[in-house]
Amino acid sequence: MGRRVVYIRPQGGYLPLTTAWIAATGESDTTILNALNTFEQGLIDNSLTGKFNAIYPFVGGDSTKHSFNFINTLTFQLAFFGGWEHSATGALPVFGSYANTGLTPSTTLSLNDAHLSVYTRTNTNAGVDIGSSVTGPTRHCYLAARIAGNYIGNINQATNSLVANANSQGWFTTSRTGVTTLTGYKNGTSILASVDVSTARPTQPIWLAARNLDGVVDNGSVRQQAFASIGSGLTAGEVSTLYTLIQAMQTSLSRNV
Questions:
Q1: pTM over 0.90
Q2: What CATH class does 16-252 carry?
Q3: What is the pLDDT of residue 7?
């Protein structure tokens, strides 16, 4: 059996990812820093840190602090385009705005082992929250908490996987763990089980608050985001654990839904 790795936080100090984020942002608010550090400890305790290419916790209240990738502040920093309102509760896009992650599925994500997630604080019935698509041939990798009454969750496929959803507030996750194994979750609970086949990975970078469709804004969203992530596929147990960690962080920041 492998040994569990436990990081001991030095007195007055923080864990490695939180420390790097502090160095990048200059943040000094201890409520924020303690929330991030507790979240990081939860990732470590549950062997989840390696599941992510990018995490955007949207803390600190301005565009610079919101832009950094918590997993690695040197990679996949967000570039915001259009109108955004940055505040303590997250990042709120104006319709038609987007944030470019710089992360392209075809070069970074695995075909049958990938996830997208977003925590939204707004209930609307339109817009894509995270992802990209290309045509000729069609390849989708995007998540929409609610469009026309449906949650849509696609990972590297030509079809749309969807299920009815009446409210777009909360943490939504789409995870592919096999060629015909795609699962969608809301607040840690499965709401979609799809056998739609993976075909290929989009060659356009993933955007937030809109779908990057062949390099053009498509289905813009006006939902406020308080967390987003991209990475490897997640099991049902991992999603449940992550929801507990993410919701605890949102609650400690007084912005949970």
A1: yes
A2: mainly beta
A3: 47
